[in-house]
Structures are given as C-alpha cells and as structure tokens.
Write a structure and sequence with these properties.
It is a single chain. This protein is an alpha/beta fold and 292 residues long. It folds into 2 domains: 86 residues, Rossmann fold; 134 residues, NAD(P)-binding Rossmann-like Domain (Rossmann fold, 3-Layer(aba) Sandwich), CATH 3.40.50. Helix content is 39%, strand content 17%. The protein has 10 helices and 11 strands. The strands form 3 sheets. It has a 6-stranded parallel sheet with strand order 1-11-8-7-5-6. It binds guanine (GUN). Guanine binds next to strand 4.
C-alpha cells in the first residue's frame, strides 16, 4: 500500500506557483489576485476563507477578503461581485458557500464572470467540463486528478466508481475522469444513497472515489484487492483520547481498507490540502487567460 501524500503535493504546487509569481514581480508585472467574499459569520466558512487568504499571501498572490453582513441583500452582493468582475487586480473571485437563506446561490454564482470563476461553479464552467472544453474545474475534483497525475496512477480504461453526486465533487469528478485525456479516459460509474446495494458497485472499482459525507462508511468488504482509494470525506467523530474531544476521519475506514489498497489518500492530509492548492492554481490560470 502506498500513501498518497496530498500535503506534500499541495506544498509542491504552492512552491511552483510562488516561483512563477516571484518571476512576475522581478519583471515588474502585475501579480495574480484572488477576491474572497464571505457573507455572515458561519465559523467553518470563516476558517476556510482565512486559510485561502493566508495561502495566497504565502505564495505572493494578492488577496482580499470582503466580510459582509449576514443581512446583505442579493442586489448589494451582486453589486460587490460586479466590482470585482471589473477589477484588473483580481483575476479570481470566490463566494464562500453556503450563503444565507434569503440569497439565491445560483443567481450569485451566475453573476461571477466565467473568466474569473476559479471555483468552477458557474454553469458555463460546468457545461464546458461536460463537453470536454478547457475550463475552470472545481478545486476538489481538480485536486484529485492532480494527485492521480503526480503519482502516475494509470486511469486509462480503469473503472472509476464515484460514491456521491454533489455538484462540488461527485458530478464534476465523474465528468473529469470520463474525458478522453491522459489521467482520465476511465469508465465511470456514479452511485449514491439511493442505490439498493452500494457495495455491488464499490466492489467493482479499480479507483474508488468516496464523497459521501459519512464517517468511515466504506469498509474493507466493500472493495477489491489492489483498489486505489481517494477519500474526499472530512468528518468529525468523538475521540476522548484527543484533547479536542474529537478527531477528523474520512468516508473510508482507513485502517481496514488500506490493507487491501494499492494506493490510498489519508484523512487528514490527502485530498483536503489539494483543494486550496488548486484554487491558487486556478487563480494563476485566470491571470494568464485575462492577460495579467
Ligand atoms: N463551501 C464549501 N466548499 C467550497 C468551495 O470549494 N468553494 C466555495 N466557494 N465555497 C465552498
């Protein structure tokens, strides 16, 4: 069994970007910039956004966080997004989800310029992904493919089984692995909670991508020997041996499943760190598309 070290790959990607940004600075060019918009005071969202902003600063990227009141109206929020759509110093815009109930998320996502849609959530980005055109791919799926690439895991003709059908992970990773490209070109099955017998599907996986949102759901009797396991889950479970009183586990029962795996991502330290790395990478890509 080989561990897929997302923490290591993510810091490699950040270093690569940092070097490219240093080059831009040396030649007096503008640097890529990311505008993050946070509405309200959801504690998890606050942590995610500050960690995204900190990562920008670490690699020399421009970063701004717009912290907005939970009571902001949809129109006011769209006005702020429009300001960044026009701003030449910000090449990527992200609106942290979820948004308060009175705001229509779809409308907000659609108000972001597709050229600055570094989260890959805009219907134009999603549509381009489905028809195999170059686009912004949402960060977690892009991070998963990057891990497969950097570990040179053969995906051609392999059976990728995705468990979960979310717009952020399940659907985009299924479309990504279906594309006729290197590190894709797989046969893809998407299954989900309505399946009568999930293990019927998971047992067939050469590459299993678990994005279910339930702690340690995938057990060793649900996979075949030699499977490549990509665990997207981030779940808190009670742990009295930990001073915090909890620990973070994935959607896969790591101890037992790792024994049957050829490769496996740990939680934490697998897919998680890749999400921010790909956000930075997408922002750099937007910078290049927009011409700096
Ligand atoms: N909320 C949870 N994950 C994400 C993400 O990747 N991007 C944004 N914008 N919001 C999120």
């Amino acid at each position: 069994m080989q561990l897929i070290d997302g923490k290591k790959i993510s810091s490699e990607i950040k270093n690569e970007l940092k070097l490219q940004i240093e080059e831009l600075k040396k030649t007096g060019k503008n640097v890529p910039g990311l505008a993050a918009i946070l509405v309200g005071d959801n504690p998890a969202s606050q942590i995610y956004v500050s960690s995204k902003s900190k990562s920008c600063q670490e690699i020399g990227m421009r970063s701004i966080v717009e912290k907005l009141s939970v009571n902001i109206s949809e129109d006011e929020l769209i006005e702020i997004i429009n300001k960044y759509n026009e701003d030449k110093n910000y090449h990527g815009i992200l609106v942290q989800l979820p948004l308060p109930k009175h705001i229509n998320e779809d409308k907000i996502i659609e108000s972001i310029s597709p050229q600055k849609d570094i989260d890959g959530f805009h219907p134009i980005s999603v549509g381009n992904l489905v028809i195999g055109k170059e686009t912004f791919v949402s960060c977690t799926p892009a991070g998963i493919q990057e891990l497969l690439k950097r570990y040179e895991i053969d995906t051609q003709g392999k059976h990728v089984v995705v468990v979960g059908r979310s717009n952020i992970v399940g659907k985009p990773i299924a479309n990504l692995m279906l594309q006729k490209n290197r590190f894709a070109n797989s046969v893809v099955t998407v299954c989900h909670s309505a399946a009568k017998d999930l293990s019927y599907f998971t047992k067939q996986a050469d590459i299993l991508i678990a994005a279910i949102g339930q702690a340690e759901f995938i057990k060793s009797d649900m996979v075949k020997d030699g499977v490549v396991v990509i665990d997207v889950g981030i779940n808190r479970i009670e742990d009295n041996t930990n001073p915090k009183g909890y620990k973070i586990v994935g959607d896969v029962a790591f101890e037992e499943v790792s024994k049957k795996s050829s490769y496996i991502t740990p939680v934490p330290g697998g897919v998680g760190p890749m999400t921010i790395a790909m956000l930075l990478s997408n922002t750099f890509k937007a910078y290049k598309i927009l011409g700096g």
